[in-house]
Amino acid sequence: MDFSFDRFVLRSLSWMACCILLISAVKLSAQEVEHNYPVGPKNTDCDSMQLNGLSRETMIETIENNAFRFDQQFKISRVAGIRAGHYYSCDGKSGFLILTVGKEKALFVDVPKTIWDEFIKSSDLDGFYEKNLKNHYRLIPE
Hints:
- The protein folds into two domains: about 1-30; about 55-140, no CATH class.
- It is about 35% helix and about 25% strand.
- The protein has helices at about 5-30, 55-65, 115-120, 125-135; strands at about 70-75, 80-90, 95-100, 105-110, 140.
- Strands 1-2-3-4-5 form a five-stranded antiparallel sheet.
- The radius of gyration is 25 Å and the shape is extended.
């Protein structure tokens, strides 16, 4: 068996280059891709969802039973005030906000995702609601 140091170095470098390429490919495939064009509602029910003419309760039920591009929620164990929130968005920019206040559900439409992000980070949900949500976004009446 012919063994030379040059051959060993060449094979080692080839092996290391393959590993680096493989690791780079894995890292690139895990990155989120941003598009510079509108992306349609893939794997959602957004384009087939009909809410016009429905009661608030039926609208909430329809929203809760459909698939959205972005769907996030929180729940808090407390007796009064905001007890839960659920945000649904077709495009990741604006969407529906359903808040459980006491035993009632409130439905807001066209709420920007940035407001939702600020809301869930707030240390005072009720205060944020009063200052930034109530009377600022369209609330669907009963």
